[in-house]
Amino acid sequence: MERLQKVIAHAGVASRRKAEEFITEGKVRVNGKIVKELGTKVSQNDKIEVNGIPVEREMPVYFLLYKPRGVISAVKDDKGRKVVTDFFPEIKQRIYPVGRLDYDTSGLLLLTNDGEFANSLMHPKYEIHKTYVAKLKGIPARESLKKLERGIQLDDGKTAPAKVKLQSLDKKKQTCIVELTIHEGRNRQVRRMFEAIGHPVIKLKREQYALLNLHGLQPGDARELSPHEVKQLRALAEHGKNAF
C-alpha cells in the first residue's frame, strides 16, 4: 500500500505537493469515490482518477545491480557524482534503490518502482538477511567476533545478533577477511560494528541479499529479477524472521 499523493506523483500526473492539492480539492477519485484525505493509501489494484482522467500506473519492474564503489545509492546527486540509476539509461520507469549502500561500499543492491515491495523488504520486522564481506585492519580475537554475534552496543543502540565467520587472515600485513550476516539496516552499520571492536573496515562488499547473490556479475552489471525471485522475496517478507 502507498500514499495516494505519492502514486499520483510517481505516475507523472503532478508534483507531490500539487497531487495533495488535487486530493484536498476533491479532484481525485479512488474506485469511483472522491477521496479528500491525504493519509489515504491505495493498492496496485485500485483505480485512480484525477479530474476524471484515469491515472496510468507504471508496470512494476525489479532489478539487481552490482554497485561499484564510488557510486551514490540515489536517483540523483546535487554534487554531480555517479548514481545507481545511471546504470539503467534505457529503463523508462522511474526506479529507485531499495535501501542503500555507502558510497565506498560495493555489492548487491535492488532497484524497483514498486513502493509496496520496497517497503516490505526494508521494514525491520521482516528481518531480511544481508551478507557482507569485509577486509579489516588487524586480526580480531575470537571473543571480539563473539561480541558481534551476540550484539554490540553502538551509539544508536545495541545491534541484533549476527552471524560472523573469519574467512582468511594475513599475519604479515595484519589484515583479515570476515563475513558478516545481519538483518538490520542502520546507517553505516557494518563499518560501525567493526570499528566498535577496534578493527576498521578497509574494503566492504555486500555479497548476498536474502536469496539473491552476485554470481556471474561484475561491478556495474545489472539484471532483471525473475518472476520466481520476486515471488520468493514477497513470501520471505510476508513470513519474515528467517532465523540463523
From TrEMBL:
<dbReference type="GO" id="GO:0005829">
    <property type="term" value="C:cytosol"/>
</dbReference>
<feature type="domain" description="RNA-binding S4">
    <location>
        <begin position="2"/>
        <end position="65"/>
    </location>
</feature>
<dbReference type="InterPro" id="IPR000748">
    <property type="entry name" value="PsdUridine_synth_RsuA/RluB/E/F"/>
</dbReference>
<dbReference type="Pfam" id="PF00849">
    <property type="entry name" value="PseudoU_synth_2"/>
</dbReference>
<dbReference type="GO" id="GO:0003723">
    <property type="term" value="F:RNA binding"/>
</dbReference>
<dbReference type="InterPro" id="IPR002942">
    <property type="entry name" value="S4_RNA-bd"/>
</dbReference>
<dbReference type="InterPro" id="IPR042092">
    <property type="entry name" value="PsdUridine_s_RsuA/RluB/E/F_cat"/>
</dbReference>
<comment type="similarity">
    <text>Belongs to the pseudouridine synthase RsuA family.</text>
</comment>
<dbReference type="GO" id="GO:0120159">
    <property type="term" value="F:rRNA pseudouridine synthase activity"/>
</dbReference>
<dbReference type="GO" id="GO:0000455">
    <property type="term" value="P:enzyme-directed rRNA pseudouridine synthesis"/>
</dbReference>
<keyword id="KW-0694">RNA-binding</keyword>
<dbReference type="Pfam" id="PF01479">
    <property type="entry name" value="S4"/>
</dbReference>
<dbReference type="InterPro" id="IPR006145">
    <property type="entry name" value="PsdUridine_synth_RsuA/RluA"/>
</dbReference>
<dbReference type="InterPro" id="IPR020103">
    <property type="entry name" value="PsdUridine_synth_cat_dom_sf"/>
</dbReference>
<keyword id="KW-0413">Isomerase</keyword>
<dbReference type="InterPro" id="IPR018496">
    <property type="entry name" value="PsdUridine_synth_RsuA/RluB_CS"/>
</dbReference>
<dbReference type="InterPro" id="IPR050343">
    <property type="entry name" value="RsuA_PseudoU_synthase"/>
</dbReference>
<protein>
    <recommendedName>
        <fullName>Pseudouridine synthase</fullName>
        <ecNumber>5.4.99.-</ecNumber>
    </recommendedName>
</protein>
<dbReference type="InterPro" id="IPR020094">
    <property type="entry name" value="TruA/RsuA/RluB/E/F_N"/>
</dbReference>
<dbReference type="InterPro" id="IPR036986">
    <property type="entry name" value="S4_RNA-bd_sf"/>
</dbReference>
